[in-house]
Design goal:
By secondary structure, the protein is an alpha/beta fold. The chain contains 3 helices and 8 strands, in the order ββββαβαβββα. Strands 2, 3, 4, 5, 6 and 7 form a 6-stranded mixed sheet that branches. Strands 1-8 form a two-stranded antiparallel sheet. Helix 2 links the parallel strand 5 (89-94) and strand 6 (138-140). It starts with a strand and ends with a helix.
Length: 205
């Protein structure tokens, strides 16, 4: 058989930008007994970013936080209104432990981005939520700090979100070339390894 087959496919990376959204009556962040941020009715978002994440993925996650319908409407219809619809508040908290691997008894956190990369991507996420909503209604914790997070879950309702928007087109050749080091169009295939990883020591011990 001659020719080429074309197919569109999702690439599901093992570690992607992730968030846990909790519908709350109230939530707050405290550091060393000092109140940092607090909200009333709205969403508490625990968010984590992975080494291969891009600004596009964290911005998509920001939009989803605001679009997800987690409240009933006035007629009693379930899952009808978003945090924007109810004019609620949003509290964002960075939590790299969402991307832990638990294959062993001791969690492994190398699936989470670290250092300045994590700080930048998480900062973009919060900034995008503020940009898409009312900035004064979007609060934040403190990146990389040891925080005490208090919440009153309303429901309870908790929703997991993972970004899987890396979509590519695959071209499958029925008679592939002998040069397996070449990609489609003759381009060289390169694999980049990222090793920068920094986490609070007290959470890794």
């Amino acid at each position: 058989m001659k020719g080429k087959l074309h197919a569109s496919s999702k690439i599901c990376k093992s570690d992607v930008a992730s968030a846990v959204l909790q519908r709350v009556a109230s939530a707050s962040v405290t550091i060393d007994t000092q109140l940092v941020s607090s909200i009333g009715k709205g969403i508490l978002v625990f968010a984590a970013v992975a080494p291969d994440d891009t600004p596009k993925e964290v911005e998509s996650m920001a939009a989803k936080v605001l679009q997800l319908r987690m409240w009933p409407d006035e007629a009693g219809g379930t899952w009808k209104r978003s945090v924007q619809d109810i004019k609620g508040e949003v509290l964002c908290v960075s939590q790299f432990t969402l991307l832990a691997s638990t294959k062993k008894s001791k969690p492994d956190f190398h699936g989470a981005a670290g250092g300045e990369q994590a700080r930048d991507l998480y900062g973009r996420f919060v900034a995008k939520v503020q940009e898409l909503y009312e900035a004064e209604k979007v609060k934040n914790g403190v990146f990389a700090a040891m925080m005490q997070v208090n919440l009153q879950n309303d429901g309870p309702v908790s929703v997991d979100y993972e970004s899987h928007d890396a979509e590519v087109t695959l071209e499958i050749q029925t008679h592939p070339a002998k040069d397996h080091d070449k990609g489609v169009g003759g381009e060289e295939l390169k694999v980049e390894e990222k090793s920068n990883y920094e986490m609070p020591q007290e959470l890794l011990d």
